[in-house]
Design brief:
It is built from six helices and no strands. It is mostly helical and 151 residues long. The chain has one domain. Helix 2 packs antiparallel against helix 3 and helix 5 runs antiparallel to helix 6. The longest helix is centred in the C-terminal third of the chain and has 41 residues.
């Protein structure tokens, strides 16, 4: 069953890449980043992490992988970030939020809305912080070799 889910995540990431017109030569990389991120989210869930933390960890994988691939392939990191984060988007939680609101279960709806917003924020913060940390490390290494500070 897990293999089926991994294949589905790969196909989803590649499909989003096709939708956003990512070059064909990069689609497999984008799909691989999506699979790696979803795998980390799945393993974190199995280890007992709450879904928000699992999404945060997965988004860190997206940020670091995208920056590494961008550096290796000399392409923008966003090419790998967009398709990879689609499998993490809390779509079913947003649907459940709306369903609770429509049925009049406002307390449950607000609770689910908070969970949805926090999950989205965790994804955004994970990608932002990992990309920033990666760039800081790369720039620090460049400064160490060159020996002078940028102006």
């Amino acid at each position: 069953m897990v293999v089926f889910k991994l294949v589905a995540v790969f196909l989803m990431s590649v499909s989003v890449g096709v939708l956003y017109r990512i070059p064909r030569s990069l689609l497999l990389y984008a799909g691989g980043v999506g699979v790696a991120a979803w795998g980390v989210m799945y393993l974190a869930g199995l280890a007992g992490a709450n879904p928000i933390m699992a999404n945060f960890l997965a988004s860190i994988v997206i940020g670091v992988s995208a920056e590494l691939l961008a550096r290796l392939l000399k392409k923008p990191a966003i090419i790998f970030i967009i398709p990879a984060f689609f499998p993490l988007v809390p779509g079913s939680e947003a649907y459940t939020t709306m369903l609770y609101m429509v049925k009049g279960h406002y307390v449950d709806g607000v609770s689910m809305a908070m969970r949805t917003v926090l999950t989205g924020a965790a994804i955004a913060f994970g990608i932002f912080s990992s990309s920033t940390a990666y760039r800081l490390v790369i720039n620090y290494n460049k400064l160490g070799r060159v020996g002078k500070l940028p102006k």
